[in-house]
Structure formats: C-alpha cells, structure tokens
Amino acid sequence: MVEEKLAKNDRILEEMVSRLIAAFNPDHIYLYGSRARGEAGPDSDYDLMLVVSASQVPRYRRDQQAFRALCGLGVPKGVIVLTRAEFEAGRKVICSLPATVLREGRLLYAA
Fold first, then answer.
1. Rounded (5°) CA angle 10-77-49
2. Class of residue 35 by CB neighbours under 10 A (exposed 0-12, middle 13-18, buried 19+)
3. Nearest to 107 by CA among 45, 57, 55, 51
4. Alpha-carbon distance 93 to 36, whole Å?
5. pLDDT at 1 > cutoff 80
6. 45-69, pLDDT tens digit by residue?
7. Taking Cα atoms as reference points, which of 72, 7, 8, 13 lies closest to residue 48?
8. Rounded to whole angstroms, how far apart are CA atoms 57 and 100?
9. 53, 63, 71, 87: most buried, per Cβ within 10 A?
C-alpha cells in the first residue's frame, strides 16, 4: 500500500509506484533520500529501491528495466532493484544502502 500522505501529495510518485508494481511485482518499494526525509528541493530526484523475491537477471539489467518502466514521467529519478537475498545481505552492514534505506527511508508498498 502507498503511504496515504505521499499518495495525496505526490501524484508522480503514485504513478511511479504503480508502474513499478506492474513491471516487477515487488515485495517492497522504498523511497529514500531527500524526498523521504522531507528535504526535497525543486530539482530533487526520486530515489527508489525495489526488493523482489528472486531474479536470475543481472542487477544492472533489472535497474535498466525499472528506468524503462518509468520512462516519460519527466522527473529525475534513481532506481535500484535488489533481490531479497541482496537486500538482506546489505542490511547487515550498517553503512550499506539497504541499511540506510531501512533507517531513513519510507516504505511505499508492501506485497
């Protein structure tokens, strides 16, 4: 489910989540970075992390697929797609991106 506050205030983010769900059927989608912290400026990008159950596709290809799914929205974005195993391994390292996302990010969607 998309957090109510974000869904009401950011239609672009809602569209991004909808497209990513259709493209990946992820377990989770997180928003992180300045938008998640409430510090976004007019030129801030959308930083998103998806967690998928498993994938035989290399990570860089998953990321490319995510960018293609978000094509045409006209906003800057950064999208990372991790498998559950990659995410779990990373969350144990305090300075890793998955650990930071769990600490500072906002859960937008959970299957």
1. 85
2. buried
3. 51
4. 21
5. no
6. 999 999 999 999 999 999 999 999 9
7. 13
8. 24
9. 87
Dist CA 61 CA 67 (whole Å): 10
Between CA 40 and CA 32 the distance in angstroms is 11
**What is the pTM assigned to this prediction?**
0.90
Q: What is the mean pLDDT of residues 76-81?
A: 98
Tokens of 92: 């144990």
pLDDT computed for residue 7 by the predictor: 42
Token pair for residue 32? 């992180």
- pLDDT confidence of residue 10: 86
